[in-house]
Amino acid sequence: MAKLVGATLYLYLFLFLFLLLLHIHCHQCKPAAAASFVVHGGGGATARAAAVRAVFVFGSSLVDNGNNNHLNGSGAVRADYAPYGVDFPLGATGRFSNGRNVIDALGELLRLPAAGLLPPFADPATRGRAALHGGEVLSLKQQITNFEAVTLPDLRAHLQGATTATTTTGHKMKGQDFFDQCYLPKSLFIIGTGGNDYLLNYFNAGSGPTRAPLSEFTSSLLTKLSNHLQRLYDLGARKFVLFSIQPLGCTPVVRTFLNATSDACIEPMNHAALLFNSGLRSIVKNHNGGVRSHMPGASFVYVNSYKIISDIIQHPAKYGIRKTSRACCEVSRGGVLCQKEGAICSDRTKYAFFDGLHPTDVVNARLARKAYGSNSPDNVYPINVKKLAML
């Protein structure tokens, strides 16, 4: 009997979540105080009001902003060294890029304080952190458990005496009521996961003949993801942004591992990503007004990372890119990470990938712009992140 390998949405890195709280106006609840505040390591008040109350991000190394710096265990995978961050104002912060990751770029567009930079949950300086558990991966299930057990109680305590709101009916609410009825429903919950289940599990050489059929494996992943989304909904989440898997077969690490001799992508890997992405889009379609939805009042956005990045790879000159099949940095033996203090390309804006797996700042910025403002359902469905934030 075939065994499902890794069908638990394991993530490539020990990544929890990030959050940034903003005190702003919403349609249902009007804050009585005018002052802005930020918790969990964010900056001060901004001159312009942001479109969302908070941003919570669950995902892999593609969205990690420094949680990997605080990993325990000898097998920890980190990006807290040069040349990572060569084009980032703060240097090597743990982001797997030469500059911003997609969440950083999206945070700027959402007009979050501190230039859109969200603090890492695992940083000891981040208020309300959980004990670090060590190891190379952490399941999405555990990330949500940390969110429920640590972040939610911490935020409720913070709001207990700090916030008084007035609803449109004149009803006063404080603390926990305000948090559960106004804060969480007006926050964005961003999830980017799934790719590493294929890279590190399904297509891993160690999975061998016990590997389940691709359709069965994918179906299991999507079922588990749906359950995790339901759990977040039950905790109060109402606005979801789901990033699709990028074109795995076009990444330098996959090309190198399979000894690709041309610029052509490895189609079996891309097929797996497309299969998962199709199911992910169906989840969004079914929950946005679907008669069978178990999440009434929830709104979902599907960001087609696969198409957006594929467009860059297939038409590089259109976007000022020259190299799409090679990493900008000198990669280490595993083919994924940059060699510590290793050589890098002179112009990072001409490369699609910084290391063997992670896009450059310029690609992340384009992905964020499309997610935020595109009106094409091929890029983002059924609405863009800007419109979702304004709901």
From TrEMBL:
CDD domains per UniProt: SGNH_plant_lipase_like (cd01837)
Entry's localization field: Secreted
Signal peptide (UniProt feature, chain positions): 1-29
Pfam families, A to Z: Lipase_GDSL
GO cellular component: extracellular region
Sorted UniProt keywords: Hydrolase, Lipid degradation, Lipid metabolism, Secreted, Signal
UniProt keyword Signal present: yes
Gene Ontology biological process terms from the UniProt entry: lipid catabolic process
Gene Ontology molecular function terms on file: hydrolase activity, acting on ester bonds
Protein family according to the UniProt entry: Belongs to the 'GDSL' lipolytic enzyme family.
UniProt protein name: GDSL esterase/lipase
Organism of origin: Oryza nivara (Indian wild rice)
Lineage, highest ranks first: Eukaryota, Viridiplantae, Streptophyta, Embryophyta, Tracheophyta
